[in-house]
Amino acid sequence: MSTPRREIAAPHWLVQLLRSTPVPIPWNMVARAVLALAVPLAVGYALGDIGVGALVSTGALPTVLSESAGPYRYRARRLGGATAAAGLGYFAGLITGGVPAASIPVVVGVAAVSALISAAGSNASVAGLQMFVFCVLGTGQHVTGLRVEVLLGYFCAGAAWSLLIALATWTFRATSPERGAVAHVYVELAAMLSATDEATSRVARHQLTTAMNTAYDRLLTARSWLSGRDATYRQLLNLLSASTPAVEASVAMVNAGRHAPDDVIDHFIATSAAVLANQELPEPPEAPEDADPVLAALYAGLARIGKGDNRKRREVQPWHKRLRGWAGSLVSGPLTWFAALRLTLCVAIAEVVALLVPFERSYWITLTVGIVLKPDFGSVFGRAVLRGIGTVIGVGIGAAVLAAGGEGWLLVLLIAVFAGGVAVGKVRNYGILSAFVTPLIILQMDLASTGSWNIVLARLVDTVLGCAIVLLFGYLLWPGSRRPQVGGRLADSLDSLVKYVDKGLVLAPSGEARLDRSRARRRAYRALADLRTAFQQVVVEPSAAGRQAVAWWPVIAGLERVADAVTEVGVTLGRGAPAPDEADIALLTAALAELAAAVREERDPAEMPMPDNEQLSGVVDQIGAAFDAVRGPDLVERAPLRLVRRFLPYHRRA
């Protein structure tokens, strides 16, 4: 088996690491962050005690750091849980601060708990991180000389203010996020059909998948918390579900290399505007008489939009079942314990180092370690490097503030600027986030009360030490951390693709069969989108993991083309095109199953018989290309897959 000769030079992975995500600036989040963090400081200064304003502003940080786009109900749960967890951690830090014999065990214990609860989902992960961060920050507040109840009161006041800012518009914009998500699907459909070349259409295809995943997630999350009066959400979900034939036909059109008529693109844009404005949908254009099966399916899909059948309401899962599922994931998922052990060990080392460093408030070392080593936040190497780079920049900004004699209203203005930068960094790049959050916390927790140049130097040294601990003990010396661990996820994505091939190439005479087919398609595309995200996180590493991610990249693109080819065949079924023989479909699923088995067993895939069927030629060609791509990377050299199968129960052997 040949080994790819392509190597990642340092400039390449560094460029990947520093690359900013090309998303629009979230101005609404920027505005909320500025109001939440700057207003308490301004009020404190106006009343003659800017230090109190800084402490109240600190209580608003959990909401700002946990903010994300989504339905109001989802955001209320996420922000409320993160703020409550931060308050709990802050209290634990306050009552043990100044007594290392008490604070070190508490901080290490909170770190372990925060890692374990990350397995319960995204919201639990954010809450766990905030609990750890503010526990560490709380341990350094004893130097203020204020009583614990006073400090906690200021924190709670800031937390209440930030939650009010975050959710204030709920009463008159209740369904706007969900409506906007559905409208965005039609915008991406129009963009994909308007693409003039394959590269542009491929990017648009990925954006359409993301838009659909976001829309379904938001609607299902919102409806799961309603007690029955959910007519608006049901209408939007029916509208999104009824768009499936149009989506499939559009993908088939693009996969065939054809351009959609202008009236189709215009209709998608008009539909998006109507959904966003909550107006009646426009009438679909008439299909031309000489339309071929794919084009006819596209026009039929347009007519279907807005005429979907009502879906059954999603049942709310009782809290005890969710708790049981999380507990089960801990018992059956040793990788969670593996990550928790790494985080706990590195935090303990950081706490010991903090005792030896001759700086006041050296909790920043532990803070750096905990944030970088969060088990579900991507590449440890990438986050450590970006944290270091961002902090150096942030400390430089803090030094500039001191040199300018920043105080009073200038300090309020700078807090507002840094707060906006944090909101932008959260969606653009972790290094940008670190560059703004560092001077923000310095000003809030240090300069407002001390104004010392020593704080700037201490934060720089502390961050470098924290990143060094992570890179040495959590990355270089930690078993398997530099070995590729993405092959197992690739095999799981192949399993989802097998199920889609099995359901997408047969006739679907009933509504239930069509629903099963659309669900299989969504699962396959979602799995491939998640796989692409996982690879993008790993590709920044200059180790074998990064090299493997680059070598595997053609496989991901090949599997996406297989899914598109299956969609193209599926939309023609029932429109003059006969269904392929079951034996031919079985050959395709067997070939993809063999591909998954080869990845799991770290071997070359065996030669598999393929159907000799003109109708399936596009699917066969793309599967063949995927086989060639898998034969490129050296699976035997990638022993990391053995580690993955050992620690991840869902990476099962064939």
Automatic annotation (TrEMBL):
The lineage of its organism: Bacteria, Bacillati, Actinomycetota, Actinomycetes, Pseudonocardiales. Residues 52-89 form the Peptidase A2 domain. Belongs to the YccS/YhfK family. It holds the Pfam family FUSC_2. One of its GO terms (cellular component) is plasma membrane. This is Integral membrane protein. GO terms for biological process: proteolysis. The keyword Cytoplasm does not apply.
